[in-house]
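Practice problem: predict the structure.
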Amino acid sequence: MTATLRAFLVNSSRALGVEPQSLNDPAADADVQTALLQDVIALREAGDAERSLRLLEVAEEAGLVSDWIEDNRARALLVLGREQEAIPLLETLCACATDAVAASAQELLSMHQSKSFPPDSDSEVQQEGSASDGVEN
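Answer:
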């Protein structure tokens, strides 16, 4: 299933006009979620938050679900200026079971509320435990 999921995400990325880097590596079969996160972060950092968000949506539709994916969704929404969607998501993430994501969400909320929000400070790849914890097969 993971090879199929990875292949689907690679093809979806290409359909969005993006050649994935991490997902394109066959070694990503061992940890598809981390490869996905690396690619969506790279897109967002390159100024392509819209495609980053679209790839996250494709992954969710394929059954890839985790707090880290939601964290990256909130970050992309903030970069796109879609605070009315990002803020409730961040508030939900503040209470999530992944401590690092909850802390990151609280920090993003605080920065946003103080208007000193740097739109793309990345701490979201500091995953704890297996990235496949949130993957539904």
